[in-house]
Amino acid sequence: MNDTRPTPVPDQAQLFRDAMASFPSGVTIVTTVDDAGRRWGFTATSFCVVSMDPPLVLVCLSDSAECHPVFAKADRWIIHVIHPEHADLARRFATRGADKFADAGFVSDERGLPILPTASLRLDCTSHARQPSGDHTILVGKVADIDMTDRLPAIYFRRQFHTLAEGVTA
């Protein structure tokens, strides 16, 4: 017997989310403070180098994020490339309404910005540009200072955190 019903078309939005989850990326936690000194932050896997001269990087922040209004006018922020031990912290910073900084190991730098000393890499950024794009804002930061460690970063792939294998080459 022939089935004449149309073949269901997959939900394109879900298909796009699944496809993007199949692209491995590093994971960052981005932090700043507001005018009153309150700490704010979010998790971002959308992070990349924009320019080497001047040194520019970008992260993407959802327009619906609680911290969006603060980052929309922040002059400085810190991008932390996290280590696999920070996977739970990254999930917390991606959760709306969570007490993100409670017992998280952040300390304040000389300007009061929250830094995570155990991150694999920290980039101290000054605001260079902001660009609305779809349902996100692209935050472009000029890198003012860098703190690197030998700790390998976490990799996020298919909605799971993974450890980068040291010494593995293609």
Automatic annotation (TrEMBL):
Pfam families: Flavin_Reduct (PF01613)
Ranges where the Flavin reductase like domain occurs: 20-163
Keyword field contains Manganese: no
Gene3D superfamilies: Electron Transport, Fmn-binding Protein, Chain A
Keywords: Oxidoreductase
GO biological process assignments: pyrimidine nucleobase catabolic process
Keyword RNA-binding belongs to the record: no
Any one GO molecular function term: FMN binding
Cited InterPro entries: Flavin_Rdtase-like_dom (IPR002563), NADH-dep_flavin_reductase (IPR050268), Split_barrel_FMN-bd (IPR012349)
Family assignment from sequence similarity: Belongs to the non-flavoprotein flavin reductase family.
Protein name, entry field: Flavin reductase ActVB
